[in-house]
Design brief:
Chain lengths: ~350, ~400
């Protein structure tokens, strides 16, 4: 009798141990530690969006969103190339970050209350100020978004675009037919095939998608902007140190532009007596201690990735295929709204 | 009845704990009860494990600040859906998007199953046809479509269909009623203005009477060798006549809502979107290729002697097939056919690739992303597919029992 009872007990104890063992998995070390241990940064990007995150013919990722991740890698791992890019579609992106598959999500993602408050994620700042626009075929003779009553509209699933579009047509008392694809490439193909009259997305994306059409010249982007789309990187909620590192990596690039520091003049500027420059480069001031990094973290970002203007011009600026003007994304001192907190 | 104290077999101390242990031991030693105890323990462990997984998930979601619960189902969805079988616009709730998604999935699945069965049977029979050309054409069809991934076929049909169609302003038109263009196939929508329910009920009554007549007709034919004379005509007369008379008596009026080109698109009327067309085409052809093979296997499982016996009785090849071969083949055909139906229903979720608003596209796509409640949304979506699959299985099992009984 004792034997059988004790064997039952054993089963119960084993079960309890198994449960405890699973529970252990949930608690993990901080993101900074795990990134350093892995030796690379895992960065969620788009499945291919020219100017923001797009692999070139050698498979090397380029783009503004990509450079934000490279900056974080330069700050934490001392090497901007130590990034593993994980391509995600709009539907997968938040789950990938929540589950810990990626460390940073830098994928032209609009900062909204719902996403900030109920996904267990935090936006670390704004890397690009965008707005939703419309692209139409020239032949339709449409001059403004107000002429779009009754149009079929191609959209990407799981974006704020879908909601803005519905709001816009509803408030203007117009009808539309949404044709929803799961990738931005799908929307471009649908538009190209004539399935819809209009392709709607963030304006920056419209320019990028236009380059993929069979006849890019036959399509125009309408001047109307119907929403605010502040795009920025996200991290998981609850790791404040990591949140600060990503936030200040972006701020370092913007401050560098403001102070006239670039990857080209940085070596010379190391001798600068300007207190602002000295603080950013970690010679004086708060340095890297508060965010558990060495003092030269910001210096490396500028050296290896560049300041915000360099990143912008290289990827989406007037010399790139996208030919986007700085516009809203100019520094606050140049008539834009780009503004980063100071290094003090 | 003896005194329980005195009757105690155990002569050690008779405390309540010991007595309890004794009775447990007795149960444990009972060969008929022990397996029950073991099973109960296993069930308890499984349930406890499941409860722990759910509890752990909820806790983790909460500590990570991710919203949980089903409150989102009553929130306003705020996004549009291309095709809906029930009333839907942006102001409806996320719960409504769930319904819209399910109905769209069911629509394409049911239509797909119907067309795939018809085409699959034709192809399967054709493959065994003595006509060389027919048999070869059918083989080519089967081998081609069975061996190309479904997703590619969906893309192919979608873009092939789109490429073949004109812009709405240059639609193919049949009169002022039917239009075919890039935005879909548009046709007039019948609008019943009054007396609708009476006509509808009379239709049901007519079909019921016709079925009863058919049953009587068959019964009499089996019993006497001769059915009710003119039964098919009588049935047709019932089905057409009763609703027509009701219509005339009730004075119901019907008008048509005609599709009309206004601005970019046709407004009014009913339409079939190209996504539905392409998806249906791809699912039908792909599944039909498999069903054809299932049908061929079933037909080949019927012994040659059966066909020869039928031929020697003077039955023509068509009659041999429909009266002798197919009824016996059904026993072999139905179980794998069920598999194909289940595959089709599940494959319909590939709709999301071309933007057909099925459950995965609408609910597990947009709704999931706008609310961020992945666990709830995916669980609900899985439950729907499980329910659809189990229902199809159940129906097919019932049917299978019937064909199996008839055969013996």
């Amino acid at each position: 009798m004792l034997k059988s009872l004790s064997s039952l007990k054993k089963v119960a104890v084993l079960g309890a141990f198994a449960a405890a063992g699973f529970a252990q998995v949930a608690s993990a070390s901080t993101t900074l530690e795990s990134v350093k241990e892995k030796g690379y940064l895992s960065c969620g990007v788009s499945t291919g969006l020219a100017g923001f995150s797009n692999p070139d013919d050698k498979g090397i990722w380029n783009g503004l969103d990509v450079d934000v991740c490279r900056a974080v890698a330069a700050a934490t791992l001392k090497d901007a190339s130590k990034v593993k890019f994980v391509p995600l579609n709009a539907k997968e992106r938040f789950t990938a970050l929540q589950s810990g598959e990626i460390d940073v999500l830098s994928r032209n993602t609009t900062w909204t209350l719902t996403r900030d408050a109920s996904l267990g994620l935090n936006f670390t700042g704004v890397s690009y100020y965008d707005g939703q626009g419309f692209m139409v075929k020239k032949g339709l003779g449409v001059k403004s978004a107000k002429d779009l009553d009754g149009a079929s509209v191609c959209i990407q699933a799981g974006t704020t675009t879908e909601l803005n579009l519905a709001d816009y047509f509803r408030t203007n008392g117009m009808e539309y037919q949404p044709v929803v694809f799961d990738t931005s490439d799908g929307t471009a193909k649908g538009f190209d095939a004539g399935r819809c009259d209009v392709l709607t997305s963030d304006q920056s994306q419209l320019y990028a998608l236009r380059t993929r059409l069979t006849k890019p010249d036959a399509a125009v982007v309408l001047p109307d902007v119907i929403s605010k789309e502040p795009l920025g990187p996200l991290v998981r909620q609850g790791d404040d140190l990591w949140f600060n590192i990503v936030k200040w990596s972006l701020a370092a690039m913007i401050n560098a532009e403001e102070l006239g520091l670039s990857s080209e003049n940085i070596t010379a500027k190391k001798e600068s007596t300007d207190p602002g420059v000295r603080r950013l480069l970690g010679i004086d001031g708060p340095k890297g201690k508060g965010i558990n990094l060495d003092d030269e973290w910001a210096l490396r970002i500028i050296e290896q990735v560049g300041n915000y203007d360099e990143v912008f011009q290289r990827n989406v600026g007037v010399d790139s295929p996208l030919q986007i003007d700085r516009g809203l994304n100019a520094l606050w001192s140049d008539g834009g709204i780009l503004y980063a907190p100071p290094f003090r | 009845m003896s005194d329980p104290e005195g009757a105690s077999i155990n002569n050690t101390s008779s405390g309540p704990v010991n007595r309890l242990l004794n009775s447990i031991l007795l149960l444990w030693r009972d060969a008929s009860i022990r397996p029950l105890i073991m099973q109960a323990v296993v069930v308890l462990l499984v349930v406890a494990m499941g409860a722990w997984v759910i509890n752990n998930t909820m806790n983790n979601l909460e500590t990570r600040g991710i919203s949980t619960g089903f409150d989102f189902l009553s929130q306003e969805a705020g996004f549009g859906i291309l095709q809906s079988l029930v009333e839907y616009d942006e102001s409806h709730s996320y719960g409504r998007t769930f319904t819209v998604g399910i109905l769209n999935t069911l629509l394409v699945s049911v239509l797909g199953i119907f067309f795939a069965t018809v085409l699959g049977f034709l192809m399967g029979v054709a493959r065994l046809s003595p006509n060389w050309l027919l048999a070869r054409l059918s083989s080519v069809f089967i081998e081609t479509f069975r061996n190309i991934p479904l997703l590619l076929q969906i893309f192919f049909w979608y873009f092939a269909v789109l490429a073949a169609l004109p812009h709405p302003r240059q639609s193919y038109a049949l009169g002022d009623a039917l239009f075919l263009n890039l935005r879909g196939f548009f046709f007039p929508k019948p609008v019943m203005e009054q007396g609708l329910s009476a006509v509808f009920i009379s239709c049901l009554v007519a079909v019921g009477l016709a079925l009863f007549l058919r049953y009587k007709h068959r019964k009499q034919r089996v019993e006497t060798g001769k059915g009710i004379s003119g039964a098919p005509y009588l049935m047709a007369a019932l089905i057409v006549g009763i609703p027509a008379i009701t219509w005339w008596l009730s004075g119901a009026t019907m008008t048509f809502d005609m599709p009309e080109l206004k601005g970019f698109n046709f407004r009014g009327g009913l339409s079939i979107i190209p996504e539905l067309g392409a998806l249906l085409l791809a699912l039908t052809i792909y599944t039909a290729a498999f069903i054809a093979e299932v049908v061929r296997a079933g037909i080949e499982s019927v012994q040659k002697g059966q066909k020869e016996a039928a031929a020697s009785l003077g039955l023509k090849p068509g009659k041999t097939l429909s009266l002798v071969v197919i009824p016996q083949a059904m026993k072999v055909i139905v179980p794998p056919l069920t598999n194909q139906y289940l595959n089709l229903a599940k494959n319909s979720s590939l709709a999301t690739a071309i933007g057909y608003p099925d459950l995965v596209n609408v609910f597990a796509g947009t709704t999931l992303n706008q609310t961020g409640q992945a666990v709830e949304v995916i669980a609900m979506t899985m439950a729907v597919y499980l329910t659809i699959s189990l229902s199809v299985s159940l129906l097919m099992n019932i049917y299978n029992k019937r064909v199996a009984l008839i055969e013996r």
